[in-house]
Amino acid sequence: MKYQVQLQVVLLSSVICFTACKNKDVENEVKGYHVKGDTVYIGSDNILTSKIKLSDVEVEPYSREVITAGTVQPIPTQFAYIAPPFSGRIVKSYIKMGQRVSANTPLFEINSPDFTSAQKDFYQAHSAKELVQKELKRKEDLIENGVGSQKELEEALSALQIAEKEYENAHAALLVFQVTPENMVLGQSLIVRSPISGNVIGNNIVTGQYIKDDSEPIVTIADLSQVWVTAQVKEKDIRFIHEEDDIEMHIQAYPGKIVKGKVFHIEEAVDEATRSIKVLSVCDNKEELLKIGMYTTVHFLDKSSGFVHIPETALLQGEKYSYVYVLSAPDTYVRTPVEVEVSKNGKAVIAEGLGSGSKIISEGGYYLK
């Protein structure tokens, strides 16, 4: 009995071994290829040749992309805080919130004793200059008639130079406030005007209110037809960004809307806390979609250059890297590691590993794994 059991075990083992060997032969027959290192050799009459598809490597223009968050800010030269130049009482307002104004547009009117003093200084300087001019003319007449002295004439010339300088200073002091001194009436109120064109985005004017000359600004004008977008770019990615590069911005408030712009300035210093660098970009905002302080997603686009493009189906994933099979000779393929820049729209952009002119397995490469 024991002998029969042992015989059955031996017979069963023989059957299993025969079946395994037969299956291995079938598997090898189906595979019909052999591997040596990273090279795969396939017989030309093998069934696998009908299961794989070859494609030529294509080189197409591509712009490297760096994506980060950004914040909308006004351009300083297109943003004005306006405070009263003198202490006084506001007697009239010309604007309302959101109003579009041009440069030199009246904003508000203020009645100020300080402004009246500035007017008096101008009129006094004007009168003094006229008196000195008359005195000089008189001295010149005396010299011509032989009864004047050269010293008196020189003193009159010196006095005129001083008077003219004082007049110029008083005149310039009024021009700063966009007042035309020649058309001014002594005691008139000061009309404060906008220094830039833009929209009224801040209006704290209260008619009748007395305001000191060191008060906070009461009007804010901003030209938001263009804005700055401030973004923090990681130190490792800054090499892909240059001034005048194009950018695209995606705004959560407007899904699907893309706003374009250009890199304006790259900061020279790295933020030691975040290891990032501030990048300023200028964006058109004629539609006024971008609001101050709004968050955006910024796509920095490097200048376009030629990159290898392959079908995504050609990519295979190994334990440590992605790879493709490159045709090196008839029915011979080399497993080649590649560095993928990005994959989208069914194609993979290859940064390293492939050159133009190569032919790869674009479909069916997994049969050779």
UniProtKB/TrEMBL annotation:
Q: Where in the numbering of this chain does the CzcB-like barrel-sandwich hybrid domain appear? A: 79-223
InterPro entries annotated for this entry? Answer: Beta-barrel_RND_2 (IPR058792), BSH_CzcB-like (IPR058647), MFP_Cation_Efflux (IPR051909), RND_pump_MFP (IPR006143)
Write down the superkingdom of origin: Bacteria
Q: Which intervals hold domain CusB-like beta-barrel?
A: 226-302
- SUPFAM superfamilies per UniProt: HlyD-like secretion proteins
Could you list this entry's UniProt keywords, alphabetically sorted: Transport
According to its UniProt record, what is one Pfam family this protein matches?
Beta-barrel_RND_2
Classification via NCBIfam families? RND_mfp
Family assignment from sequence similarity? Belongs to the membrane fusion protein (MFP) (TC 8.A.1) family.
Q: What is this protein called?
A: Efflux RND transporter periplasmic adaptor subunit
